[in-house]
Structures are given as C-alpha cells and as structure tokens.
Amino acid sequence: MLTRDIFGKFLIDSRRGILGWMIGVAAVTALYSSFWPSMRETGDAMAAFVEQMPQLAESMGWSDLTSAEGYLGSTVFGLLTPILITIAAIAFGTRAIAGEEEEGALELVLSHPVGRYRVLLQRFAALVVFVALLGLTIWVVLLALSPALDLDIAAGRLAAAALGTALIGLCYGTLALAVGAVTGRRVYAIGGAAVLAVVGYLGNTFALQQDELEWMRFLSPFYYALDPEPLRNGIDPAFTAVLVGIPLVLAGLGLARFARRDVLV
C-alpha cells in the first residue's frame, strides 16, 4: 500500500494542516474582500491620497484603489494571500523531505521497495495539489462573495489571479522541498526558502522606486504573477510558463542530488 500510494498517504497524513490552511486563506480572502464596498465609497479620498504620493502608491500596488480589480489586486492578491500561501507552501515543502528525514519517517518510507525518484516526485505532486487547493479556495470564496460585494469581475479573471497566487506559493514551496532534498536539514529548507521569498517580494515591490534595481523584479515569482494584472487581463501564457517552469527546474535539481546522497538515520 505504501509503495503504491506515497502521494495519497502524504496528503492524508497532512489533511489537518491542509484543512487549516484552507480555512485561514478563506478567512483572509473573505475579510479583506469584504472591505471593498467601504473602499468604493471613499474613492475620491483614496484617489487624492494616491496623487499626493504616486511613487509610494505604485510601489505598494495602491495606484488604483477605486476599482474592484485595483483594490483586490493590491490587497488580497498583491500582499495577503501570496504571503499566506507562500508560508504554507514552504512549511509543506519542508516537511515533504527534510522534515520527515529529521524525524526518521523518511527512512521508513525508503526501507520499502520504492525508488527515491518516486518518493520525491510524489511528494512534489502532493505539494502541487496542496497549493492548488489553496488557490481554489481563494477563487471559490471570491466567486461566492462577488454578487454581494458587487465585484463585477469575470470568473475566469478571478481564476487567473488565484492561479498566479498559487504558483507563487508553488515556486517557494518547491524551493523548500529541493533544499530539503539536497541537504536533509529542515532549517536550511525553511531558512533558504523564506529568505528568498522575502527578497523576491521586496525586490518586486521596491525595485519600482529605483531604476537600477529593476532587474531584481525579473528574478521574483511575484513579478510574473502580479505584473500581467490577471484581474484585468486574464492569464498571461508567457509569464505563467515561467511560474510553472521554476518549480519543475527546482524539483529536478533536488531530485538529482536526493538520488545520490546518504539519508540521515
């Protein structure tokens, strides 16, 4: 049973954590999207605020708080859910290899007739399902609240924004998984992925204020998810391909090392 379904068993073992993160993401999405009607009523004041500090507003993604797309793009999709999903994905990716290795559980899995390639790939697939569920949660919540909040955003564009947010989490979650696969150490997996996530977010945010730092945006998954403005334009195939390619490359690098190194016992 274990050798046939490493993927399913890992998801079942993680079900409480998955449910908890889904509830948290749903609560944050519902809470901040519910502020939109109040924000719409203060549209003139917010527009005046943006005109007084245009650079700060642009760097923080507040350049348009007078439309539902601009408000959700700067709050729910520009800050809160990407950070929440990134934290969740890093924790999940860390536990997938490094966490279980330090606890001795991975040794038990590998004692069965199952290849390391299979273990890592199925744990990566579980991570994909996890972030997909979190992205689906955002989409379902916004779709359900849309009539009451008068969001007037097409379901396909809400889905595009939720997909981009989930892919940000997948990038950093896979980074944690890969670092864990290479080192076998939880602290390196969490620390490495968390530091690069902070650098990625700040690089995409504050590089807008300095032309010399603009190159940092191109190294950040946040840039590829947010810059196409999916709430207005839908999915950008080229930028989405980058967000899909990053986890695949990271998983491949982790797999190459995990297949050859000694596992901690």
TrEMBL record:
GO terms for cellular component: plasma membrane. The chain crosses the membrane at residues 18-36, 70-92, 124-146, 158-180, 187-208, 238-259. It comes from the Bacteria. GO terms for molecular function: ABC-type transporter activity. Keywords: Membrane, Transmembrane, Transmembrane helix. The keyword Zinc does not apply. The keyword Transmembrane helix applies. Pfam families: ABC2_membrane_2. This is ABC-2 family transporter protein. It comes from Streptomonospora litoralis.
